[in-house]
Design brief:
alpha+beta, Alpha-Beta Plaits, 2 domains, four-stranded antiparallel beta sheet
Length: 218
């Protein structure tokens, strides 16, 4: 290990990294390391921890020595039960590619201060596949600012989440759920007609595109 601690997102080899989700709170870095060793040599395991409780938040990343090992892990480890819960294992780079293709990102507002990324994940993953971990805006002390974002791999899933969760209670407060504003600053929200058209076209080509970036189909 180098002197500056764990590798950052930028240092990590995304092509050789898998995302691991739906982890039971009993899972540890060491246990995930041992489990993933069955697929190939492991370089690094990182389960992001809550600063206060030091509990992981139900997800993490495992970097392998080679892209082939990561591909293999995503095939043989996905849906394996760990402490009774089927874990999700998929290539981190495949997630990134899909997120470029779609843009079905929702803004979740009026959040109870105790709602964390894990609660958002458990709540919104019921509506479809999330392509990245939910993000909660936090201040310098890592306290929630009361809003966050979730990104789906399809507008159908995002529409269902808006329909199902807008004005529903998460802990003590009713949350607002709507498509987030685009980052170009023009005040337009995601989910417009053009994005949906591009997404439907991308879906037709998406699986061959995924294969082109190194995710093999079974």
């Amino acid at each position: 290990m180098s002197g500056h601690g764990r590798p950052t997102e930028a240092d990590r080899n995304q092509e050789a990294t898998v995302y691991i989700g739906n982890l039971d709170e009993q899972a540890t870095d060491a246990l995930i390391w041992e489990l993933m060793l069955q697929a190939g040599p492991v370089v690094n395991v990182h389960l992001p921890k809550d600063r206060v409780t030091q509990q992981h938040q139900g997800f993490g990343f495992c970097e392998f020595q080679s892209e082939q090992d990561a591909d293999y892990a995503s095939k043989i480890m996905n849906q394996i039960r760990l402490f009774g819960k089927p874990i999700r294992v998929n290539k981190a780079s495949a997630n990134k590619q899909q997120s470029l293709d779609v843009g079905a990102e929702l803004f979740i507002g009026n959040l109870d201060p105790l709602v964390d990324e894990r609660i958002l994940f458990d709540t919104f993953s019921r509506f479809g596949n999330l392509i990245t971990q939910p993000k909660i805006a936090r201040d310098d002390n890592l306290s929630s600012k009361g809003y966050g974002f979730v990104s789906f791999d399809s507008f159908e899933a995002a529409d269902a989440a808006v329909e199902g969760m807008n004005n529903q209670f998460l802990m003590t407060k009713s949350c607002t759920v709507a498509y987030s504003f685009k980052k170009d600053g023009k005040g337009e929200r995601h989910g417009d007609t053009v994005e949906r058209l591009l997404a439907s076209q991308a879906k037709k080509n998406n699986y061959s595109l995924q294969a082109a970036v190194g995710t093999t189909t079974i």
